[in-house]
Amino acid sequence: MTKLCSLKRPMVCLSEPVPESTRILRLLARFQFAHEEKVISLKRPMVRLSEPVPESSRKRFNIKDLGKLRFFLGLEITRSPSGILLNQHKYTLDFLSDRGHLAVNPCSTPHDSSLKLHDPDSPLYPDESAFRSLIGRFFYLTTSRPYITFAAQQLSQFVSRPQDINFQDATRVLKYLKRFLEKGLFFYANSRLKLSWFAGSDWASFPAIHCSISGYCVFIGSSLIS
User: Fold this and answer.
1) pLDDT tens-digit readout, 156-175
2) Lowest mean per-residue pLDDT among 107-111, 120-124, 182-186, 200-204
3) Distance CA 78, CA 92 (A)
4) What percent of the chain has pLDDT over 70?
5) Where are the alpha helices (DSSP H) in the chain?
6) What is the spatial distance between Cα 177 and Cα 107, in angstroms, rounded to a whole number?
7) Nearest-5° angle of CA 87, CA 89, CA 91?
8) Using CA atoms, how far apart are residues 166 and 118, in angstroms rounded to an integer?
9) What's the CA gap between 151 and 168, in Å, rounded?
10) pLDDT at residue 8, rounded to an integer
């Protein structure tokens, strides 16, 4: 009687070239990396991060050493003897230009706490997709501008059914970004390795939901990290 067997996972044809992932894992094994279920851990230090890419790795994987990181996915990294500045100046300018807000009058705060975001009398905003895109870009800007996190979080509650009043508050965030284009995070070179945590609450003073709004920030030494 003929038996049929099914493979639990696909086989690799012996005539096919070795997959790039396999070649990488073989190389990592030479440096005593442990890998299991796509999680890779280093058993011992391989090279210092400041050292150039090994010549053997360059030839095998066409790796190019780009030097010190200066710009990556909208993030700008500026180094000085006193530390590292992380900001998104160009990304913010492009963002404001796309929204047509380069010439708007700036404001000093990203959110108006007296504004009632849950207003049943406010008409619906006509372009839900544009509003979702706007809020998504706000969240990306929180990478170097954590002080707009609260405003972005509040507005994100209305992405499925935005109202004109919500777009009005989002416009205020844009005006705030216009005023503080150069803002970013600075990581001090001589900062102490000491973790500090600060938290606070407004004790149910937020008019939109009548609940306490809490916030926190985490520092390593004098550098804000969260």
Assistant:
1) 988 888 989 999 999 999 99
2) 200-204
3) 16
4) 66
5) 20-30, 55-61, 89-99, 128-141, 149-155, 164-179
6) 8
7) 105
8) 9
9) 12
10) 57
| 222/188 Cα distance (integer angstroms) | 7
State the pairing for strand pair 71-72/39-42.
unpaired
Q: For 114-129, give the DSSP string.
A: T--SS-TTSPBPS-HH
**184-188 and 83-87: which strand pairing?**
antiparallel
Q: Could you tell me how far CA 52 lies from the centroid of its own chain?
A: 27
Please, which pLDDT band fits residue 2 given cuts at 50, 70 and 90? low
What ranges do the domains of the chain cover? 20-61, 75-191
**Is the model's pLDDT at 46 over the cut of 50?**
no
**Distance between CA atoms of 168 and 103, rounded to whole angstroms?**
17
Token digits of residue 69: 């990181």
